[in-house]
Amino acid sequence: MIGVATIGAVVAVLLVGVVVLVRRPEDVRWILRCSALAITVLVAAALTPYTVDDSGAAAGYLLGVPVVAALLPVLAQRIGRLGLVVDLTAALVITGWGLLLGLGIGGAFLPAVVLLLAGAVSPSSPRPSTTA
Description:
Elements: H1 2-23, H2 28-55, H3 59-79, H4 83-100, H5 111-121
């Protein structure tokens, strides 16, 4: 189950990357942050039965930490403050948590880090139109 969740997360990240490159949306950061949150939530949902069976009540924080970390950049953009810092912090938290739980469920959360890092380095303002 962990392998399926990890492969699904990698495929989802690749699809988001292709869509962003092809469609060139105006607010790339918003798309990347929301996609990272959605992928993290879906991975956590997919791993919930396995984690509850394995860890019991600890599943709440084992799965909750990456979800909360992925939620923070979305909230920061809505508030309009410290977007870059929150993106990098969330990426660091998810990476650290993923490595800490690396022998178990942690690796499935790592693909979303790519989207958070891409959101941190993407341009903050919409791209100017090239059509006249």
